[in-house]
Specification:
- The chain is mainly beta.
- The protein folds into 3 domains: 60 residues, no CATH class; 318 residues, Pectate Lyase C-like (3 Solenoid); 65 residues, Sandwich (Immunoglobulin-like), CATH 2.60.40.
- It contains 5 helices and 36 strands.
- Pfam families: Pect-lyase_RHGA_epim (PF12708).
- This is Pectate lyase superfamily protein.
């Protein structure tokens, strides 16, 4: 049969160009009975276009064949694939291969891709420069709620290796899964899970990011401009976090989840913060020093500020575990959200904060807390610098607060102080005299109102505000 492949741009000149780039047009695409030479694919595509009445040489704009083709080795090096460095699901220790892949990705500026599978290694893996790690998914394996007598698949994964998709399995040798001491760089990740081989004991953090100069009194920035999305951690102990970050700035954490110790500890030796948490989950199920979300500053002398938390969830709860694993339960000293006195301007919107061990939360004194969804939460909140839980309502903006009372006045003028002050809006106050005329003598204030009566007597009052 005659070669009817158009001469331009997909005919002989094209195949000459790809031969020059060491691409054989007779090489197969695919495998097995469906394999076809590259030249045959071009014939089928151009033939289909011609059959439809089109002119393939003029109108074909499919990405299958480029007008300026690159060599295959260039095409396949758009990302750094960990499998090209000897990483396998069969190896008991992929540390060398994973580290080589990380170094190659950092040096080339390309994304590190780790395909679906379970990869064991001995931590830590050192991240020397800017890096983005991506996998094929992070799907928690909760399993059936009724799979065994102790199952509680509602809150934690119960099926080893606890995630499907791309799963890294560091050994529990007291080291963090990833460490970085660079200054002011972005290390991001998406769609993979980390599951410690021996869960809930003797682990480190998932990402421990401490710029080298931050520990010796010199100021340097840490993780900056990073985005972490759909990444999971299972099995860290109660003294460690998914993210342990010193001087972080401009970071986003989206739909990430941690099962074991805490979710994040952001610490400032200089100013840090300006970060966003969206629908993240912290299941603190192991006793230790870690809080669900912790924010701190060096000697309370610097500032961690401008943190926004949207729909975050934190639960401190003693849970059953797969295969008879039973770590020590969390304690009420492990806060759901914990801030020291030099944290400022937090916005905490529609959180889900739950505890079975009487944990509490410590918020910045100038925080905004919107749309409370956890019942009875106000009794478990204090504000940094104040030990009195009664301050909680001052900043809970879950809607208007109604207050009322009755006053038996012996004078015709006076002042009434609200039991709960209205910090966010001037309240609307109404008076009703019982046998006397009662009216406001001045506009209400945030903490009180003044009244005037036609004669000594009793009156009732109502106030609505925020």
């Amino acid at each position: 049969m005659a070669d009817t492949t158009p001469s331009t741009p997909y005919g002989a000149p094209y195949f000459s160009s790809v031969k020059a780039d060491n691409i054989d047009p007779e090489s197969n695409i695919g495998s097995g009975p469906d394999a076809m030479p590259l030249k045959g694919v071009v014939k089928q595509v151009t033939g289909a276009v011609q059959s439809a009445g089109g002119n393939a040489s003029k109108t074909m704009a499919l990405p299958l064949i480029a007008t300026n083709p690159r060599a295959l080795d260039v095409i396949f090096s758009d990302v750094v694939n960990a499998l090209d460095f000897g990483v396998t699901t069969d190896s008991a220790d992929n540390a060398a291969g994973l580290q080589a892949a990380i170094n190659a990705a950092v040096n080339s500026g390309k994304c590190l891709y780790i395909p679906s599978g379970v990869y064991k290694y001995t931590p830590p893996l050192v991240i020397p420069g800017p890096l983005h790690i991506t996998g094929d998914g992070c799907l928690p394996l909760f399993g059936s709620l009724y799979q065994d007598a102790i199952s509680d698949a509602i809150n934690i994964p119960m099926v080893d290796p606890y995630f499907s998709g791309t799963v890294l399995r560091p050994s529990s040798n007291g080291q963090s899964a990833f460490v970085c001491s660079a200054a002011g760089i972005s290390v991001s990740g998406d769609n993979f899970g980390v599951s410690f081989q021996t869960p809930f004991t003797g682990t480190g953090h998932m990402l421990d990011f401490q710029p080298a100069d931050a520990s010796n009194g010199k100021a340097d920035m840490g993780l900056m401009g990073a985005t972490w999305r759909n990444v999971g951690l299972y099995g860290h102990d109660g003294d460690h976090y998914m993210f342990n970050l010193v001087n972080p700035l401009y970071n986003t954490f989206d739909s990430c989840k941690a099962f074991g110790g805490g979710f994040s500890h952001l610490h400032a030796t200089i100013n840090g913060g300006n970060s966003l948490f969206m629908r993240t989950l912290s299941m603190v199920i192991v006793g230790g020093a870690a809080h669900g979300y912790a924010f701190s500053t060096k000697d309370n002398g610097q500032a961690m500020q401008l943190i926004t938390m949207l729909g975050v969830q934190c639960i401190t709860d003693s849970q059953p575990h797969d295969a008879g694993i039973a770590p020590s339960p969390p304690t009420n000293a492990q806060s759901l959200i914990h801030c020291d006195p030099n944290c400022h301007q937090f916005a905490i919107v529609a959180p889900d904060l739950e505890t079975t061990v009487s944990s509490f939360s410590v918020f910045p004194p100038d925080s905004t807390f919107v749309d409370r969804v956890s019942g009875g939460l106000s009794t478990g909140i204090t504000y940094a610098g104040s030990g009195s839980p009664s301050f909680a309502k001052d900043f809970l903006q879950g809607g208007a607060e109604f207050q009322c009372g009755v006053v038996a006045a012996t004078e015709t003028t006076g002042t009434v102080t609200f039991p709960d002050a209205y910090y966010h809006s001037t309240p609307v106050v109404n008076l009703e005299g019982y046998g006397v005329d009662a009216k406001l003598s001045a506009a209400p204030e945030w903490n009180q109102f003044s009244y005037e009566l036609s004669a000594p007597g009793s009156f009732g009052w109502t106030a609505v505000g925020r």
